[in-house]
Amino acid sequence: MKKKRLLFIIIFFFLGLCSYLFIYHNINIKESNERSKIYNWIEKKIDKKKGGYLKKIFFPWAIIKDQNLNIKILEKENTSLKRLSLEKYDRNKYLDKILTDLDINYKESYEKYLKKSLKYTSNNSQNIIKEIKNNFIIKEELTSKQTIKNKLIVSYETIKHESLIVEKKNNKNLIIFISGHEPTSPEEKKSIKLLTNELNNYDVLYLSIFNRGLNKKFRNEISFKGLNQNKDYDMNNNNILKLYDNHANNINPLGLFLSGNYYLIKNALQKKKYDQVTIAGLSGGSISALFYGVLFDEINNVLTFDGVLPLRSYFFSSKMTTYFYYNDNMFLDKYDFDTLYFIIVNSKKNLNMYYSDLYWDKNYEISKNLLDKFMFKN
Questions:
Q1: What are the Cα distances from residue 91, in Å, to 82, 96, 110, 241?
Q2: Is 59 in the same domain as 174?
Q3: What is the pLDDT of residue 234?
Q4: 47 and 150 fall within a common domain
Q5: Is residue 139 scored above 90 in pLDDT?
């Protein structure tokens, strides 16, 4: 009996060792971020603390893989930061020389442009607002709505935008957060949690830009006309809206980008009357926040954090991006973001733009100082 038990233990140990070697070999020949189905199943079924102990005992290769992957990610990020720093330095180094050789005083020229823009916007703000609504907001009859508890989903052209609202009956004010290109939704951000915990008498409406945050889970449902005709695209990239090819309803990419959250905000403002409404755009969410600050009379305060400056600044900056709403949309063909700034301020609303140190270089400072001079008078 003892011999059989010992034999059973030896066979069990041998089979376990073979399984270990097989899985280890299988993991090694795959990409570095793949994990075995067994490992994934265990990871989902147990909490992180217990999982750490079990991984060390049964899946030591997974620990090594995670460590190696983290090291590679850190090395990549460090290289990217160094490259960005060098690009920024080199570009600014030669920019002064180019402008001097062309006999261009950037500050004077930009100030002259802003005076012209301010005058034009002051005389034409109502027409510009009407133009934005007609050209960049999809007609409501082309959208559909679905309510799930405290969430509302607006859909059009297989694109979905979701809102999450936290409200109390007696609250008199509303703050709207729109997150940018980060994958997390705004209510998950620590900075926003700390802020909302300090707010009294405020309902909170959480939104995310297209294809990010709250809307990331709808990514696999996107299949509008024009997208499927192009094989070389990445669903993680917001530039996929440039591929939109169904113009029968007079919809353009910027309209696809803005309309979902527009109707989510409209719904919240129709359901309840507020004394004060504040909208805060974070990073890429700042573009939307500026448009909504123009389009909704109910919005009193517009805040942007690490948002956008006019193209006149971006063109001379190392942070010029390839996102379509910077350099490929109908609004920027005719206007610029300072148009939105001036409409907001001329409407006696409060506009405050905040930028972290990462965003500053010589031209940003010039731009910010000039915009301060023109805008923050009321």
A1: 14, 9, 19, 30
A2: no
A3: 73
A4: no
A5: yes
The last residue of a domain, from among 24, 48, 82: 82
336 and 214, same structural domain? yes
For 351, the domain range is: 107-375
Mean pLDDT of 3-7: 60
Strand residues in 135-224 grouped as ranges (E): 144-148, 151-156, 159-166, 173-179, 202-208
Do 52 and 185 fall into the same domain?
Answer: no
Q: Which residues pair with 60 in a beta bridge?
A: none
User: Does residue 54 register a pLDDT over 50?
Assistant: no
- Does the pLDDT at position 49 exceed 50? no
pLDDT for position 45: 43
User: What's the burial of 113, exposed, middle or buried (CB within 10 Å: 0-12/13-18/19+)?
Assistant: middle
CA atoms within 13 A on the CB side of 45: 8
Residues 268-280 have pLDDT tens digits of 999 999 999 999 9
Alpha helices in the chain, H assignment, sequence order: 2-28, 37-45, 48-58, 60-101, 106-136, 190-198, 253-271, 285-295, 311-314, 324-327, 330-334, 337-346, 362-375
User: Can you tell me whether residue 349 is helix, strand or coil?
Assistant: coil
Domain contains 347: yes
Q: Compute the distance between CA of residue 275 and CA of residue 273 in angstroms, rounded to an integer.
A: 7
| Count: domains in the chain | 2
Output the six-digit token pair for 146: 């679905």
Q: How confident is the model at residue 140 (pLDDT cuts 50, 70, 90)?
A: very high
Same domain, 273 and 364: yes
Q: Which of 357, 370, 351 is nearest to 117 (CA)?
A: 370
Same domain, 160 and 65: no
